[in-house]
């Protein structure tokens, strides 16, 4: 069992080859490839977390597409003053498929 924990967008994701992950928006073309930086690498019983050893390991991913997350509704209300405000937000995301961990 080989997997890695990669850093992407301020969070960490556990990935294996063939895993589809939704990350924060990456500056990459659709069907292009990106490299993710590993934080932890596990190969069977061997666990690698040394930065020098992790510098030799590359996690490559193929960009499947860009999308937007679910809408978050933000509402402000102050009682007895007539103040109401409504705002929405959708997060830009990128869906990638892990193609290799070497």
Output the number of helix runs. Answer: 1
The ordered string of helix (H) and strand (E) elements is EEEEEHEEEE
Contiguous uncertain segments of 5+ residues: none
Count the E strands: 9
What fraction strand? over 45%
Helix fraction by DSSP (H/I, runs of at least 4): under 10%
Q: What sort of overall outline do the alpha carbons produce when their principal axes are compared?
A: elongated
**Major sheet details:** 7 strands, antiparallel
Q: Classify the secondary structure makeup into a structural class.
A: mainly beta
Span of the ends, CA to CA: 13 Å
Mean pLDDT: 96
Radius of gyration: 19 Å
Describe the 3D structure.
The chain is mostly beta strands. It has 1 helix and 9 strands, in the order E-E-E-E-E-H-E-E-E-E. Strands 1, 2, 3, 4, 5, 6 and 9 form a 7-stranded antiparallel beta sheet that branches. It has a two-stranded antiparallel ribbon with strand order 7-8. The model has no long low-confidence stretch (mean pLDDT 96).
Summarize the structure.
This protein is mainly beta and 102 residues long.
Strand-helix topology:
Elements: E1 2-8, E2 11-15, E3 20-24, E4 33-43, E5 46-48, H1 51-54, E6 59-68, E7 72-78, E8 83-89, E9 92-101
Antiparallel strand pairs: 1-2, 1-4, 3-9, 4-5, 4-6, 6-9, 7-8
């Amino acid at each position: 069992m080989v997997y890695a924990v990669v850093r992407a967008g301020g969070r960490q994701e556990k990935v294996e080859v063939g895993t589809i992950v939704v990350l924060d928006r990456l500056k990459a073309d659709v069907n292009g490839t990106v490299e993710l930086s590993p934080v932890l690498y596990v190969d069977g019983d061997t666990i690698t977390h040394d930065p020098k050893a992790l510098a030799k390991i590359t996690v490559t991913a193929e960009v499947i597409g860009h999308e937007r997350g679910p809408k978050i509704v933000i509402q402000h209300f102050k009682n007895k003053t007539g103040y109401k405000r409504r705002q929405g937000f959708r997060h830009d995301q990128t869906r990638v498929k892990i193609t290799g961990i070497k």
